[in-house]
Prior knowledge:
The protein is α+β, with helices and mostly antiparallel strands.
Amino acid sequence: MSEYERARTMPALPEHTFDQATDVDExxxxxxxxxxLDARDLPSVxxxxxxxxxxxPAVLHVHSGRMRLEWGSRETEGYTGWLQVTxxxxxxxxxxxxxxxxxxxxxxxxRAAHAALDSSLERLEEQVRLRIDNVAG
Length: 137
């Protein structure tokens, strides 16, 4: 089993960060490049892998009270992950994303996984900033 994790500070209260991270209309804006979700029927979702042009049945659970998002493949246990928003004080929050791969088939390798996580967290931060700017402006 391979596991990868990254964290990033977000310029907003945890509630605002979590709202942005779980906005189903905006998920695809920060997910890893080449991955998109059809999340019309939560908790069931369809993940589209642009690299392989495959649609994969998956699940996505939003735990608002815990500010946690959990996902995984539906038909196999090859892939799971979670996103956790925590309050760091002073009006900022931290987002941690964790990925677990039970087999080598789904595992992109450490370098690719960390690059995808870093890029996704950077795009999520941009989305959070836009949300805060729109609320303030």
